[in-house]
């Protein structure tokens, strides 16, 4: 109804309530049916007028009674009490007495009937309109401030489809107590049992302070149930108003496998990037584009986006321009790093202060079938880019490498190891600081297992895993990119920085988690083992035994000890690869890349 209609309705109802309260009070006080007299009439008119005046003053008629609380109750108390006081004052003036018993009983009835008429609607909504059996029974993980806020919001939302049933919390002081009328039924270990006992269909994790390991532990318990698991939005999104408390999101694989973020040294990064010219090769790829995104936050003078694919470079340019406006000068270069003269032209044209070299072929099975492409792109392309940077006196050159470069068994890993040797060799005689940064798999990158698993799940399965014991290191793309940028500020020249990848993850466990996160069961989708592919290892390493440094140079960043370089052998491969058979080329690459484990090689060059 309209506000005018609503006001008229409340005016009539309250008038009836006031007159009824006075009539009943007079009857109870005088014990006679002849209750209409001058004192009663004077009291009735005074209370009636006072009630409406004070109701308008304190906005009693504007309250939304579906969400009435103690605040509204206090307003009713104030309006009723002031109305009775006005009646008392007029009785004293005109009658020279105050009928205390009449006014006291009237106050009680007035308070009871006005308050009851308002709160009866909320009771009706909660008990009749809220048909809880048609709602999704929900278990809330975390009975802290965030969890109680979520529970209160769900209880209030008449139109919502979630019905909170109970809390789970590891705090023994809260267990077996009721919070907002909901019991705390146990700790994390009780999730599966409580879900079955209470017929829970939906679980919401509401603990913003959880680290990744704790979240993973809770999710594994939730995964034992058939309930859907959701998580509270990010705290910063709630504070900034981007999302509401009730807008829960699905648990993502990044939540389970990513690690808690490391604070970046903003000052050192600003010194190396702010107001400088920065070039990113492979800027259309997963890592290159994220490095470009994060660099824009430091306001470089100019950012050159270089890549071979025009569509991907166009996309990242448009995205960065949209978010950065005109404060950064963006330039795009469609170029192949295998083109030596083109790379030299680009370096001379822009004279970059920092180069992040992310362009590379990274797909292991593809490179096994096309080893000559790995040589052209990963080895020759890196040499072209590094030599051009050296001749144009670039300040810092950061090459993105991989854990597969350690004791490589694949063409891709071997080619990246030789590329590391090339930049280390050029660093010996260059004014440019050349470094390499190694890390493992990044979540969601092109060619990674996660997009493949998601497609297989969408098609109904099965999800294919090569081996039940296959393990890999994982890191989110933003975290890897941040640490790459940070490693560039630590460069003295010649280092191989290694990012702390945390604990390795079994690929089969990753597949099972993705199936569960998609809302399916393992029985519906299934996991199928296909056997290890050529060039794959069961586990990856980040440093060889003779490269290991135990001390971190920055949180989650290690620097490997430099080892021997085999430049004569690398040059031989570069000059001969075009005429080699694929099998022979692969053998040559692996032999040179693994020479660090040999001793007394005459072509070894100490760093």
From TrEMBL:
Residue intervals of the Polysaccharide biosynthesis protein CapD-like domain: 278-560
Keyword Membrane: yes
Alphabetic keyword roster: Membrane, Transmembrane, Transmembrane helix
Chain segments annotated as transmembrane: 7-29, 35-54, 75-94
UniProt xrefs under InterPro entries: NAD(P)-bd_dom_sf, Polysac_CapD-like, Polysaccharide_Synthase-Rel
One Pfam family matching this protein: Polysacc_synt_2
Similarity section: Belongs to the polysaccharide synthase family.
Protein name: NDP-sugar epimerase, includes UDP-GlcNAc-inverting 4,6-dehydratase FlaA1 and capsular polysaccharide biosynthesis protein EpsC
Species of provenance: Lentibacillus persicus
Source taxonomy: Bacteria, Bacillati, Bacillota, Bacilli, Bacillales
